[in-house]
Amino acid sequence: MPEAPQIRLIVKDLQPFVGQKIIKATTQEKDFEPKRLEGETIKEILVFGKQILIRLSDFTVRYHLLMFGKVKINESNEKGKLRLGLKFSKGEFSFYAGTIYYIDEPLDEVFDWTTDVMNPKWDATKALGKLAKHEDELISDMLIDQDIFNGLGNKGVNEALYRTKVHPASTVGALPINKRKEIIKEAVDFSFDYLDWEEKGVAKNHFSVYLKKTCPVHGTPIKHEEIGKNGRKCHWCDECQKVYA
User: Boundaries of each FPG-type domain copy (predicted)?
Assistant: First the structure.
């Protein structure tokens, strides 16, 4: 599943289409009307967490990649279901799989930018307050909650917990306030580190526990098990990471 840093790189690659007029719009999505887009000029292409937002004259197209979404620029992918294909006088791009729909309201009324861990408006204090309302929940479940940590994915969850030496089976309420703050900070820091590594094509070389076999510090085996309610696999080192419960 693409995570926020990868989505931001995609949006960066889409920037040359800002200011261009849409000549033709196509889709295989029966509930999405593409003709509305033809003749529109792209005002802005934004990112919110794991979503791509294409702002037009007085409405926006929202695309969420979900687990298997793909973006193709100046090439086609006939094997995937086309959610939206846009052609311009200079180039084209297409969205495959994922979900797509129109937003007619102002974006500030739809999205809480303070929940996006990579947005300049990110509010760590608000995230800390939201965690306090879920003290019986596992910290690994809360970190993947997009209402609190929008854009954070499984890699970010596991790497942030490893950096802070916290076991994913720890409960929020058992964590000292300073440790919660540390986890929040590392979740954000990792996201920006991941963006830098991904841009350089070296991200896999920098993961400490995600899909790794041994701990980089102790050489002990990394555990890989499903923990919590979200059904996602956690990755941790028993030697390094403490269970707070």
Answer: 208-242
